[in-house]
Design a protein that fits this description.
The complex is a heterodimer of chains A (10) and B (215). In chain A, 0% of the residues lie in helices and 0% in strands. By secondary structure, chain A is low in regular secondary structure. Chain B starts with a helix and ends in a 9-residue tail after the last helix. The model of chain B has no long low-confidence stretch (mean pLDDT 96). Classes of the chains: A little secondary structure (10), B mainly alpha (215). At the A-B interface, loops of A face helix 1, helix 3 and helix 5 of B.
Chain lengths: 10, 215
């Protein structure tokens, strides 16, 4: 699956 | 950052400030589900484990601290404050919220971005947040008429995730390879759970009547 994206949302 | 997400974060912050105001001003937590507050504390602790490792921005870090600290303070207040805890509707707040925790954990182990500790905790926090309001909505139905501040608290808490959905739509169209399908699907479910509350909240506003949810 897609790489884990940076969690820039709260 | 876009206007929808910023408005969503501010709406979320307002919901917490309204709840703090209600508890502080009335020295009472009647009508508030302690279980929902505990679930939200778990949501923030699970979602913000990266607060010390992943620096996104000053805004992001400050908001994470505010959300964790305020929710833990509310749970502490409802459990430990000798005046406030007396007004807790213990016999009405009976939703089996441990099932919500277990179900969210199982789902996070099955459906996640990557099978890593942090990603599974993040997915767990997303799923748990979607259902965290259930004990509060059940309590509102049982406790008859709802005081204004409690109604406003639930309204803003429901509205914030609706604004986040607009944020995800905006980002989908403006950012290549943007995919937040776990948060998006979960956010849709979360917002949908408020549908009947929003309906009765709108009616009470239109008829200038006291907010009352049918049992």
């Amino acid at each position: 699956g897609p790489s884990s994206y940076p969690k820039d949302e709260l | 950052m876009n206007i929808f997400r910023f408005a969503g974060d501010m709406t979320h912050l307002i919901s917490i400030l309204v709840l703090l105001l209600k508890i502080y001003a009335t020295k009472s937590c009647s009508g508030i589900s302690r279980k929902t507050q505990e679930l939200y504390a778990l949501v923030f602790l699970a979602r913000y484990v990266d607060i010390f490792t992943e620096f996104i921005s000053v805004y992001n870090t400050i908001m994470k601290i505010v959300f964790i600290a305020s929710t833990l303070a509310i749970v502490w207040c409802m459990r430990g404050h000798r005046v406030v805890r007396r007004s807790y509707d213990k016999e009405l707040d009976t939703f089996r919220h441990y099932f919500l925790i277990a179900a969210s954990l199982v789902l996070a182990l099955l459906v996640h971005e990557k099978f890593t500790f942090q990603e599974i905790l993040w997915a767990f926090s997303i799923y748990l947040e979607a259902v965290a309001i259930l004990p509060q909505l059940v309590l509102l139905q049982r406790s008859g008429n709802v005081d204004n501040l409690t109604g406003q608290y639930v309204f803003f808490l429901g509205a914030y995730r609706g604004l986040y959905i607009l944020n995800w739509i905006y980002r989908y169209f403006t950012e290549p390879h943007f995919s937040r399908w776990i948060a998006c699907v979960s956010g849709l479910v979360q917002t949908a759970l408020y549908a009947d509350f929003f309906y009765y909240y709108f009616l009470s506003w239109k008829n200038n009547a006291k907010l009352k949810l049918p049992a």
